[in-house]
Design brief:
The complex is a heterotrimer. Chain A is 57% helix and 9% strand. Chain A is built from 14 helices and five strands. Chain B has two domains: 7-118, no CATH class; 121-187, Alpha-Beta Plaits (2-Layer Sandwich). The longest helix of chain B is centred in the N-terminal third of the chain and has 21 residues, at 7-27. The chains are: A mainly alpha, B alpha+beta, C alpha/beta. Chains in contact: A-B, A-C, B-C.
């Protein structure tokens, strides 16, 4: 396994362990839909939209959580997807990009989820969300919910992921509605990947990108799909791609 | 390298999305059990649409009475809070949660709202007389002893009589009921739910 | 997507190692989790908390004070009438006061002023460690009951430790002999190992036990699951047994406001301004029950009090006497 994927597994599993410990010790409460620790709260933006679609209700707490989440997103973008989400770690370490690109699926998934929520009058995805499942499993362990649904949803997701991965699409880059919405909120965060003067336009980075972003000429609509997985940095032989914070180079 | 989308694939995706989307509508028809909700819960339909299943109420409940609903109780209510008097009673009346309720304060979507202790009614208690110690001739009126509401349980010749109209469903009697299996259980009958979020 | 066997093994090994590591770290960080379980296993072989002194004196002295409005004065007078607290406390140094704080309503509990006055007297007698300990009725949180009934407000300024047994109590298993029902029973260690146990009860009626006074009050020295068991196994015999096992050294019954007709909560309150105290728990209870039935307007309170089932069982066990010839009532 590549070094980056190992690091990703370590960082995402330590996120889960941190969540477990903090929940058990009572520092934070809630699952990924809405986590609260002291006065700080963060919420899943798609969860908020689903509540909005299902009940047409927006509360102060949700808005506050959404603001905090957006602030994090504006700084770090989809750092969560690439380095904190356990589901994302599985995708990133197993998926082999085959250069296929399909921009419409993720937005369509968001619309589907919202329409479905509106029709069912309940936050549909929150019940079976693949991003939330690892966290909910931890929650289930602490509070003794039955985990049949979680295991079922997890198995279903694994099958779906295997299918779309065989077709050449990565879950995180092309289908995950949660991740896509995170990207939509901040398409070009302070922490982002960019090419520099060393770039020879060889397109190796494009071929290595799970989200299949045309990195040398990335448009804003492409950047939405960037999970900061740093595979482009890993594959570039000319040190032509770098991770930047605002305009300062910090890696690559 | 194939970059564009074929029309066929696009249509297939649209159809898949349509099916998944309408599944949400179908999911609404799934059956689910009526469970005893925490005090100040909205009417069931609104409650389900506003509850994100985030578990804040369950995790912050000081008494530990709230548990998430299981899959067996219905897919639609899976993960939503339920009062389980076997774990602990709800202390919204004559307890620690009269003035401030962590479940309500921590609910991000106002699916639970504050109601005055006098207006709390989560359900009522049901009696299985075959299990009751007093009915079988023993000395036990623990349910009457622990009941915080005047007149919800009255003793008649050493046997408790339950008045579901006055019972608020706090679950103290169920929690304290000595026999195994217990002679009492909680049902949401007669619950008073909130119509709108203020 | 390709997961080689090697990769899968590495993932599984990492997960297992992570889990074990977490367990190890948490066991180092939070070792106190298992302590309580260890204590539960210590079994005390032996009949009772203290041996009953049989035939020490011919009479059981019961002191009764009536018509004193101030609960503090009431408590002081009633204890002084049986010779003062020094006689009871002697040179012991761990006194536990078990008040009746079953409910979060002032009507249903022994007044904190009475408890405070007794605690004060105990301190004046030179005792170093005075503890007020109680576990409320199931379904109520003891610390909340203490707070609502102003126990913390009254007792904390005196520097007396108030213990919520449900939260802070340690459990000890006791194997009792010669009892009616209870063989092995779990009891809160704090009350069981006390040098002197003072039961401060409220004078009130009880729907399943007839009256709840100095003996019935002791049910709060047992954890919740045992309270349920007492009802399953026959309440009256179990109450007699716990009186036999714990045998309080002093019983003070606070009747400044007595609860008649119903109980243990929501009964008819009567300003009785009465207090009863004795070193003989049964004699005190008998006299207090007589007063209680008298307040209710019972024609023959003595006969009615004799009908309380657990009094009979307790007498059978030698907890005390309810023979009026052997009881010397001291009035002020």
């Amino acid at each position: 396994m590549k070094l980056l994927d190992k690091l990703r597994l370590i960082s995402s599993s330590s996120t889960l362990i941190t969540y477990f410990t903090a929940s058990l010790r009572g520092f934070i409460t809630g699952t990924t839909a809405f986590i609260k620790g002291g006065l700080v709260c963060i919420a899943c933006p798609l969860g908020v939209l689903q509540i909005l679609a299902a009940s047409l209700i927006l509360t102060n707490q949700l808005l506050l959580a959404l603001a905090t989440t957006s602030l994090f997103l504006l700084v770090a973008g989809r750092f969560f997807c690439g380095w904190m989400c356990p589901t994302g770690a599985v995708v990133h370490s197993t998926h082999r990009p085959r250069g296929r690109r399909w921009g419409i699926t993720a937005p369509l998934a968001i619309i589907t989820v919202l329409v479905s929520s509106f029709l069912a009058r309940l936050p549909v995805l929150c019940v079976i969300c693949p991003v939330g499942i690892p966290f909910k499993l931890v929650f289930a362990y602490i509070f003794g919910i039955d985990i049949y649904l979680l295991v079922l949803a997890l198995a279903g997701w694994l099958v779906l992921n295997a299918y779309i991965s065989r077709k050449g699409f990565s879950w995180c880059g092309t289908l995950c509605p949660v991740g896509y919405l995170l990207g939509l909120i901040s398409p070009k965060p302070l922490l982002h990947v960019s090419t520099n003067a060393n770039c020879t336009r060889c397109r190796v980075c494009v071929l290595s990108c799970p989200s299949n972003i045309n990195i040398p000429e990335a448009k804003l609509s492409d950047r939405v799909r960037c999970t900061l997985c740093l595979k482009c940095l890993e594959h570039c032989r000319f040190r032509g791609v770098e991770l930047r914070f605002y305009k300062k180079k910090i890696l690559g | 390298m194939r970059q564009g989308i074929r029309r066929r694939d696009f249509l297939k995706t649209l159809v898949a999305a349509g099916i998944i989307g309408s599944l949400g509508g179908v999911a609404k028809l799934l059956p689910y059990r009526r469970v005893v909700r925490p005090p100040g819960a909205l009417v069931e339909e609104k409650f389900l649409s506003q509850c994100t299943r985030c578990g804040q109420c369950i995790q912050t409940c000081v008494t530990g009475t709230l548990v998430p609903c299981s899959l067996g109780e219905g897919l639609l209510i899976w993960g939503t809070p339920r009062v389980d008097p076997l774990r602990a009673p709800c202390e919204a009346v004559a307890g620690r949660c009269e003035i401030s309720r962590p479940c309500v304060e921590n609910c991000p979507t106002n699916a639970l709202v504050y109601v005055e202790p006098e207006k709390v009614k989560m359900g009522s208690v049901k009696w299985i007389k075959e299990n009751c110690i007093a009915y079988r001739g023993g000395e036990c009126l623990v349910c009457y002893e622990v009941c915080p509401i005047d007149g919800a349980i009255t003793p008649r010749r050493g046997i408790p009589v339950f008045h579901s109209g006055k019972c608020i469903g706090c679950g103290r009697c169920v929690y304290a009921c000595p026999p195994e299996p217990k002679a009492l259980y909680l049902v949401p009958d007669g619950e008073r739910r909130i119509e709108t979020t203020r | 997507m390709k997961v080689s066997r090697r990769r899968a093994l590495i993932i599984i090994a990492t997960a297992v190692a992570g889990f074990l590591g977490y367990k190890y770290i948490s066991s180092i960080l939070y070792p106190e989790r298992d302590e309580r379980a260890e204590k539960e296993t210590s079994v005390e072989e032996g009949a009772t908390r203290r041996e009953a002194e049989v035939g020490e004196s011919k009479y059981s002295e019961v002191s009764v004070v009536r018509g004193v409005r101030d609960p503090r004065l009431l408590a002081r007078k009633v204890v002084e009438q049986i010779g003062g607290i020094e006689k009871i406390v002697g040179n012991k140094d761990r006194v536990v006061i078990k008040p009746n704080v079953g409910f979060p309503s002032r009507d249903a509990v022994a007044s904190p002023e009475v408890v405070a006055e007794i605690a004060k007297m105990v301190i004046e007698a030179g005792v170093s460690e005075v503890i007020v300990a109680e576990s409320s009725v199931r379904g109520y949180v003891t610390s909340f009951c203490f707070e609502k009934t102003k126990y913390y407000d009254v007792l904390k300024p005196l520097g007396i430790e108030v213990i919520d047994l449900k939260e802070q109590g340690n459990i000890r298993t006791v194997k009792a002999k010669n009892t009616l029902k209870l063989g092995e029973v779990d009891v809160y260690e704090e009350t069981y190992t006390a040098d002197i146990l003072i039961s401060v009860a409220k004078m009130k009626r009880h729907v399943s036990a007839d009256v709840t006074l100095g003996i019935k009050n002791l049910i709060g020295c047992f954890p919740d699951y045992e309270k349920g068991r007492f009802h399953r196994e026959g309440l009256h015999k179990c109450i007699a047994d716990i009186a036999y096992i714990l045998k309080p050294d002093l019983v003070v019954i606070d009747g400044s406001k007595a609860m008649t007709k119903h109980g243990p909560s929501g009964g008819v309150m009567v300003e009785a301004n009465t207090a009863v105290a004795s070193t003989d728990p049964l004699a005190a209870d008998y006299i207090a029950a007589k007063i209680l039935f008298e307040l209710e307007g019972e024609e023959d309170p003595a006969a009615r009090a004799k009908k309380v089932k657990y009094f009979g069982y307790a007498e059978q066990l030698g907890v005390g006497t309810m023979d009026e010839d052997k009881i010397k009532v001291v009035t002020g």
